[in-house]
Amino acid sequence: MSLAPLQTVNEKRLNNRSNLVHTPVKGANANNNAGVGIGVSAGLDGKENHRSGSHHHNYQNNNNNKRVEPHGQPPQKKKKEKLSALCKTPPSLIKTRGRDYHRGHFLGEGGFARCFQIKDDSGKIFAAKTVAKLSIKTEKTRKKLLSEIQIHKSMRHANIVQFIDCFEDETNVYILLEICPNGSLMELLKKRKTLTEPEVRFFTTQICGGIKYMHSRRVIHRDLKLGNIFFDKNYNLKIGDFGLAAVLANDRERKYTVCGTPNYIAPEVLMGKHSGHSYEVDIWSIGVMIYALLIGKPPFQAKDVNTIYERIKCCDFVFPKEKYISSEARILVQDLLSLDPLERPSIMEVLDYVWFRGIFPPYIQSDVMTEVPDYEKKITMQESMVNFRTCMERSGLIDNTESYKNSNDVIPFDNIEMSNQQRQTILPNSLSPGGTRNKYKEVVDLEAQRRLNDLAREARLRRAQQATIKKDLVATSTNLIKSEISLRILASECHLTLNGILEAEAQKRMGGLPQSRLPKIKHPIVVTKWVDYSNKHGFSYQLSTEDIGVLFNNGTTVLRLADAEEFWYISYDDREGWVASHYLLTEKPRELTRHLEVVDFFSKYMRANLSRVSTFVREEYHKDDVFLRRYTRYKQFVMFELSDGTFQFNFKDHNKLAVSEGGKLVTYISPSHESLTYPLVELLKIGEIPNYPDCNFMEKLALIKEGLKQKSSVVTIEQNQT
């Protein structure tokens, strides 16, 4: 699409938004025809407001549903002139590329565009979104319009307003769209005040179909709201207005622009540059829309925009006692409106919720704007299951090939099982339209479904927790390792222990282990004192065996044994990882004299200044001398990796945990130095350290797992040095 040379426009006009103004409409009712399958921003579908003060609705006299454009600020209250006022009324006959269109009724207007009904020579009617060229002041504005056109043009789905064409004349750019003659969900809610749950199930399924399609094409809508979802002639829903949509280069990319409509904006959007946002903003909008349709107003509604934002940031909403909403609907809405985007269900997880197993209509009736349907008495649970699956198929949520056999399959009458009551009738229910024997007999185990929902939620919470920990867990310092094979050995030990923890978690889910199979308790050798003097000499530590070690800055270690006049000198080796040389103190090499002086210095310092943090001592099963291979300091804890495969974590709150025997055993060292060892699977069963609930064991275990996971990826020497 080519645009004429851009003309200047008064700076104050640019990006202005205003309230809807009443525009006289000849021969048409603008309110009734506003649902045209487009977004013309803050007026037609952005404000989600009544045009006059004649109705006392929750959105009445409220600017809080105006769309926030990508510059990130809500519209100013004082507006001199609307950009839509720059849109010249199209001529009665619009000629373009040899095709003629006849202008029809005016349908509505918003901050940037006006919308008209137009008809081609064959009599087919479309909606024409008209944007004034005078409003396209900068190259950025032009690219924004082109992006909307390109994204919308690429969409082809049953639940997305169909893009038809685009062209321009001297004054306007025209975007031709499928006409949706029956209004929007916003207008439906204004007329009905609240909707029934069966209707909202149907609507939500169709909306999910459109969103799943968009997301599969890496498109985020970013302005999903009741006013942007329209009814076609058959009262099926269509998502419109791609003015704020964005395409992701890949699934890991984040967007940082603050935009959307205040009542619907997800919390991570408000955080802007701090976190970025992705597909989950559209999932959040589903939760807002379900709540609004069932309760009658959005969950974070307030008179002041800033109050709305504050409520969104802390997820401050309630279900009013005077409005009935099922517990299944509450659970779904609460999960959709999770503050952490990673805790929100995916589209397909949404449709797995028990709420969708309720009464489900086959279609939406044409009197939906005025009549409250009573589906509960007319539709059985078996029919609902068929209707739900059919709706999912038509919305592209499941493949037809996965479906049951075609409903036209003939079932031999002899094979139909009937109860005594059914035998009194001539035709059994299973012969009703759309019913097959398989569909009719299928029964959903709601309790099993609830359990599946709970498991899916737990998995999301774990992933979200791990992602948060991963983001926060950044090493501040670690010792230099000069051997590639040493790094591989360390990574292997971390991987082994992490797998041991995961295995214990799996055993816990299976009910734990019998007493005979529990690992034998062996207290590990642990670090009882340490001094980080790496700015000069290195890292010094005392073990529970009383041995003293210094991990020098050049990567070598001297380990002075407590029960003999001996020491080990340990250095890196390109083939073995570490090589240890054993010496008597009386026969020490001259070149190690300075090293031993440093060890003695640290020994005296620790004896004089540090208390021993553990009651453990050398046990008979401690056959080998142990040294510290690597230490890593994090904001949350210090991690010690010992040569016998034990990992110790000293947390900032003075609680300490050691994981030994390949992840099978966990040792807890309390702030008062009490030392206790348990099989990990037993701790997982109770979820805490016995008698020490304040330790927050499960939270610390999550940190430990992430630390091991990060260290289990083999890094090169170069990476280790950075």
TrEMBL record:
<keyword id="KW-0677">Repeat</keyword>
<dbReference type="GO" id="GO:0140602">
    <property type="term" value="C:nucleolar peripheral inclusion body"/>
</dbReference>
<dbReference type="GO" id="GO:0007052">
    <property type="term" value="P:mitotic spindle organization"/>
</dbReference>
<feature type="domain" description="Protein kinase">
    <location>
        <begin position="101"/>
        <end position="356"/>
    </location>
</feature>
<dbReference type="GO" id="GO:0004674">
    <property type="term" value="F:protein serine/threonine kinase activity"/>
</dbReference>
<dbReference type="InterPro" id="IPR008271">
    <property type="entry name" value="Ser/Thr_kinase_AS"/>
</dbReference>
<dbReference type="InterPro" id="IPR011009">
    <property type="entry name" value="Kinase-like_dom_sf"/>
</dbReference>
<keyword id="KW-0723">Serine/threonine-protein kinase</keyword>
<dbReference type="GO" id="GO:0051219">
    <property type="term" value="F:phosphoprotein binding"/>
</dbReference>
<dbReference type="GO" id="GO:0019237">
    <property type="term" value="F:centromeric DNA binding"/>
</dbReference>
<dbReference type="InterPro" id="IPR033701">
    <property type="entry name" value="POLO_box_1"/>
</dbReference>
<dbReference type="GO" id="GO:0005524">
    <property type="term" value="F:ATP binding"/>
</dbReference>
<dbReference type="GO" id="GO:0010971">
    <property type="term" value="P:positive regulation of G2/M transition of mitotic cell cycle"/>
</dbReference>
<keyword id="KW-0547">Nucleotide-binding</keyword>
<dbReference type="GO" id="GO:0140281">
    <property type="term" value="P:positive regulation of mitotic division septum assembly"/>
</dbReference>
<dbReference type="GO" id="GO:1990571">
    <property type="term" value="P:meiotic centromere clustering"/>
</dbReference>
<keyword id="KW-0418">Kinase</keyword>
<dbReference type="GO" id="GO:0045842">
    <property type="term" value="P:positive regulation of mitotic metaphase/anaphase transition"/>
</dbReference>
<dbReference type="GO" id="GO:0035974">
    <property type="term" value="C:meiotic spindle pole body"/>
</dbReference>
<dbReference type="GO" id="GO:0090306">
    <property type="term" value="P:meiotic spindle assembly"/>
</dbReference>
<dbReference type="GO" id="GO:0070194">
    <property type="term" value="P:synaptonemal complex disassembly"/>
</dbReference>
<dbReference type="GO" id="GO:0000712">
    <property type="term" value="P:resolution of meiotic recombination intermediates"/>
</dbReference>
<dbReference type="GO" id="GO:0045793">
    <property type="term" value="P:positive regulation of cell size"/>
</dbReference>
<dbReference type="GO" id="GO:1903353">
    <property type="term" value="P:regulation of nucleus organization"/>
</dbReference>
<dbReference type="GO" id="GO:0031031">
    <property type="term" value="P:positive regulation of septation initiation signaling"/>
</dbReference>
<dbReference type="GO" id="GO:1990395">
    <property type="term" value="P:meiotic spindle pole body organization"/>
</dbReference>
<dbReference type="GO" id="GO:0000776">
    <property type="term" value="C:kinetochore"/>
</dbReference>
<dbReference type="GO" id="GO:0035025">
    <property type="term" value="P:positive regulation of Rho protein signal transduction"/>
</dbReference>
<dbReference type="GO" id="GO:0010696">
    <property type="term" value="P:positive regulation of mitotic spindle pole body separation"/>
</dbReference>
<protein>
    <recommendedName>
        <fullName>Serine/threonine-protein kinase</fullName>
        <ecNumber>2.7.11.21</ecNumber>
    </recommendedName>
</protein>
<dbReference type="GO" id="GO:0140429">
    <property type="term" value="P:positive regulation of mitotic sister chromatid biorientation"/>
</dbReference>
<dbReference type="Pfam" id="PF00069">
    <property type="entry name" value="Pkinase"/>
</dbReference>
<dbReference type="GO" id="GO:0044732">
    <property type="term" value="C:mitotic spindle pole body"/>
</dbReference>
<feature type="region of interest" description="Disordered">
    <location>
        <begin position="1"/>
        <end position="84"/>
    </location>
</feature>
<feature type="domain" description="POLO box">
    <location>
        <begin position="627"/>
        <end position="713"/>
    </location>
</feature>
<feature type="domain" description="POLO box">
    <location>
        <begin position="526"/>
        <end position="608"/>
    </location>
</feature>
<dbReference type="GO" id="GO:0045944">
    <property type="term" value="P:positive regulation of transcription by RNA polymerase II"/>
</dbReference>
<dbReference type="GO" id="GO:0010458">
    <property type="term" value="P:exit from mitosis"/>
</dbReference>
<dbReference type="GO" id="GO:0090619">
    <property type="term" value="C:meiotic spindle pole"/>
</dbReference>
<comment type="similarity">
    <text>Belongs to the protein kinase superfamily. Ser/Thr protein kinase family. CDC5/Polo subfamily.</text>
</comment>
<dbReference type="GO" id="GO:0035556">
    <property type="term" value="P:intracellular signal transduction"/>
</dbReference>
<keyword id="KW-0067">ATP-binding</keyword>
